Amino acid sequence: MRISFDSFQNSLTGQLAAMSTQMNSLQNQAATGKRISQLSDDPTTMQQVLDLQVQNSQIAQYQQNIASLQTQATSSYNAISGLQTISARAGDIATQADGVTSPQQMSAYATEVTQLIQQGVQLMNSTSQGAYLFGGTQINQPPFIATTDASGNVTGVTYQGNASVPSAEIARGATVAVQVPGANTSGSGPDGLITDSRSGADFFNHLIALQNDLLAGNTTAISSVDAPALAKDEDNITSQIAQNGLVQSHLSAADTLAATQSQSVDQTISQDSDADLAQTITQLSATQAAYQAALESAGKMLSQNETLLNYLS
Amino acid sequence: MLGLFGALSLGARSLQTQQQGVEVTGQNLANANNPAYARQRVEIQSSIPLPTSIGPEGTGAQVVAITQVRDTLLDQQVQGEASITASLQSQQTALQTAQTNLGEQLQSSSSSANATSDVGSTGALASDLSGLFNAFQDLSTSPSSMPSRQAVIAQAQQLTTQFNQLDQGLTSLNTQLNQSVQTDVTSANQLLSDIAGLNHQIAGTDPTSGAANDLIDLRQQKIETLSGLVNLQSATDSQGNTNLSVGGQLLVAGSTVQDTLQTYDSGGGQLLVRTASAGTPLTLTGGSIAGTIDARDGALKSLQDGLNTLAGQLISQVNTVYSPGYDLNGHTGANFFTGTNASNIGVNPTLANDPSALQASGVAGATGDNSVALALAQMANTAQAGLGNQTFAESYNGTITGLGASLNSVNTQLTTQQSIQTMLQNERSSVSGVSIDEEMTNLVTYQQAYQASAHFVSVIDQMLNTVVTMGQ
Fold first, then answer.
1. Model-level pTM?
2. CATH class given for the domain over B3-39+434-471
């Protein structure tokens, strides 16, 4: 093939430009650790990576949801545990009052029960992150209101909440409710903590009955009606504590699973998009060597400017 | 027999011939770096011999023409490839600009789990879209929380701003591409006029004198520049005119511009090209004009349509779920998003001033109910019929990687195309390009022939002197 004067320059500039482009690409890969960074680098893999990143972002959010729900579950547990203590003490009083004949002793028990009711109401009006825990989805007002007579005895406790509880997602398509409504008399839905028609629990009313029977010295009613009723309440509360434990365990398992999934997705993203540094640097070295060789040979040819002219006298 | 005076004339012709050879060599050397130049050479023929009794006797040599060394087939191939290359280059430029506008780039820290900023690159639409649904998730765990409500509103505002800016960027790019089409058409018309003018000048020149060679070079250069704008069909007639057609429409016939190109609005402000006089719409298959139109009406339109569909679906689907919800004050019926597409999507302005107006609850008065917030959060993974049964994120990722695929295809084609063009240019250069070595050889050859001819004249001169002084 006949080589004209500009063939050499055209070929050289084209080859140097191609090698510069390749070196630039390899340098970017080595510097960022990413085999692909632009949409056009590898569109199919890029779409997979973008979808995986969305998945990873959702998993991270599920972990945040889980953390938030764990806080709420812990707050609920603390309140229910307190309620269990109250329930146990009320049961003790009902048992001990059975053999008491002194009106003063009965009155002292009644006063203690009154205080237990008020403590219970206070516990049931606990808040977490500014929201009442046991009002169902009525979270902007105290769920329980106690009314007292002139003597300070509790005459009634009204539930202002509802029987609904919110659920939140902890994994794709998996929701969990950590809250417990204070009362549920509908016969369906979540169990009520204080009042529940299915288990027969009606803790505050049973405490009020105990308080009133203590004041009246009606030991028969205490032993035959109040004590069994309070036992049902204690069973219900214990069941709720167990339920809370299950929920917390569920959340913990979901958190572990989310962390594992996130790690797995990270690995997949890494496999899809990360550069093989050893291979990249080897390729970069090879390209640099070729580039240097091209420059050196071109430099020699250009500097010596070898033509027939050099040899004509 | 020539006689001494005839021999002297022969020597003079020889000197003239070799001198012309040196001159053409000088012209070639002077244009060694002119890419449009095709090397020239002198055509030397023996002069007409004199008949003598012993047979015809030569009268030396003379230059009969200065010709260009051109391969018309290669020229036409270079023209055709120039059209394809220019088309791909203009597509590449347009698509790269759009890709830059999108701002979606994998970051080296992408593997770290973060609910708001690890999708695509921070601040890009993919991240904001994911961030909005994550904010709804967060709200579902604390539906009455003001910080969670503010986060939802801020994230939604960021997302809508991204949609607006992206749409604005693509609309602006569309305008620039239309301007580019207009500019290219103006340049093409100027070139058509120039080529017709050159046809006229070339036709009026003696083809054997070599005077037209430089004009032919210039015409070929302009034809190749024009090929970069539109794909041409060229044909050379018996008078040496190069006639040009585009899309089957004859535009240059000899020295006359039969018709020119003109842009017209095909609807929606999208400029296409037709012939100015006949008004015939042209389907261009090469050149930068075709590349610009292809990119504008192909990948970029798909991208913008995809974004508008996504924004439209997001607005309607979110509002459908959101509107029946209740805010912290028991109000209902408001929309979350305003607008209809990517250009005008916005967040209900009431929310910006009053986060309590966010309708996260599904039950009137139940501020702890999160059913609406949860339903909105779960929309992140819900296949939308209006998006081809894809989720919002899948639809967006599919849309933008569609652009990436188009650009990737153009990049690959362009790399191959540039190799083809370089090979063709080298091939043409091997035929028409100037070789210094070759020219120097020619120069020495002509120089030596010139010296020999001069010596011949000198000998004849001495012989004449001898004859003149013979009788003294």
1. 0.88
2. mainly alpha
